[in-house]
Design brief:
Blueprint: H1 3-27, E1 43-44, H2 46-54, H3 56-70, H4 76-103, E2 110-111, H5 112-136, H6 143-168, H7 191-207, H8 210-238
Antiparallel strand pairs: 1-2
Helix pairs in contact: 1-5, 1-8, 2-4, 2-5, 3-4, 3-5, 4-5, 6-7, 7-8
The structure holds NADPH dihydro-nicotinamide-adenine-dinucleotide phosphate.
Length: about 250
């Protein structure tokens, strides 16, 4: 199989598994955090789980860029394009694997099954995005790329801000749940998830590649059902106290 075919099949597999995951996760909430379930394996401490499962998606693109810069003969336009296209991915996973875990406040341990699935996914996706960009990525100097960066930046800022709001709800030692307010939470219960979807939609616009579109779709398929379950959970737990106009994942709609 030639390399471009391999990346095509990896992307299509991601899209198909995203569709399957979407329907499964609508009925079975992803089993971590408030939905953690001991049937899904022994617990891994939250900070360690997030660090280990996410770090491949940071290290793999960094490795590819270092190889391109120092060990391959490639023209400067190719190097420039690879850096411009991969930089948002590297920035996101630097934050997610090295900063986010340190900030988690009294997070529930992660059962082994979702931990291992996330770890495998980060290797798979880290390779897919990096290998595609290094070999075939082309940076378009146009308005769509500017919109892609803007969307990615807004999504990443919204994601970090929403996670910060959630963290600030707990005092040291507290493990319970409260109603989040402010930022995107004034619109949806899954504010961090909505922002994450915006981020990877921006990345897909910037890259205009099948792997990047597959990842944006996979993220939406994975996080939208989680936002939906969180929303139902809040409504059940807080009843009339919960803001009436707040939707699950799509402002004003769902
Ligand atoms: P959650 O919103 O379920 O939890 C985030 C953190 O906030 C956890 O530590 C949780 O504690 C705590 N928390 C959540 N709600 C409350 C509340 N009401 N009161 C107090 N504390 C609360 O997010 P996830 O853990 O699912 O995801 C974390 C990050 O990873 C997000 O930014 C998300 O976008 C991203 N992600 C990306 C995916 C992708 O496909 N790209 C997939 C999944 C997540 P506890 O652990 O005790 O519940």
């Amino acid at each position: 199989m030639i390399h471009s075919e391999l990346l095509f099949y990896l992307s299509m597999t991601m899209i198909v598994s995203g569709i399957v995951a979407f329907f499964v996760l609508l009925f079975v909430p992803s089993p971590y955090g408030r939905n953690a379930n001991s049937a899904f394996g022994p617990p891994v401490p939250a900070k360690i789980a997030w660090l280990i499962q996410e770090i491949p998606a940071f290290l793999i693109p960094v490795y590819f860029i270092i190889e391109l810069l120092f060990f391959k003969t490639s023209d400067s336009a190719n190097v420039r394009d690879a850096i411009l296209l991969l930089a948002p991915f590297i920035m996101h996973y630097f934050q997610r694997s090295l900063i986010y875990p340190m900030l988690i406040r009294e997070g529930k341990p992660m059962p082994a099954v979702p931990f291992l699935l996330a770890f495998i996914f980060c290797i798979y996706n880290g390779y897919l995005q990096s290998s595609y960009i290094i070999n075939y990525g082309y940076f378009h100097w146009d308005f769509i790329s500017a919109a892609g960066y803007a969307l990615f930046a807004a999504g990443m800022a919204g994601n970090i801000h929403s996670d910060q709001i959630l963290r600030s709800l707990r005092k040291p030692g507290e493990t319970g749940y409260k109603i989040p307010h402010g930022g995107l939470f004034s619109l949806v219960s899954g504010a961090n998830f909505l922002a994450e979807i915006i981020e990877w939609t921006g990345f897909a616009l910037l890259n205009r590649s099948l792997p990047a579109v597959a990842f944006a779709l996979f993220t939406a398929a994975n996080t939208a059902p989680r936002a939906w379950h969180h929303h139902l959970w809040y409504l059940k737990k807080f009843g009339d106290e919960y803001p009436k106009n707040r939707k699950a994942i799509l402002p004003y709609l769902i």
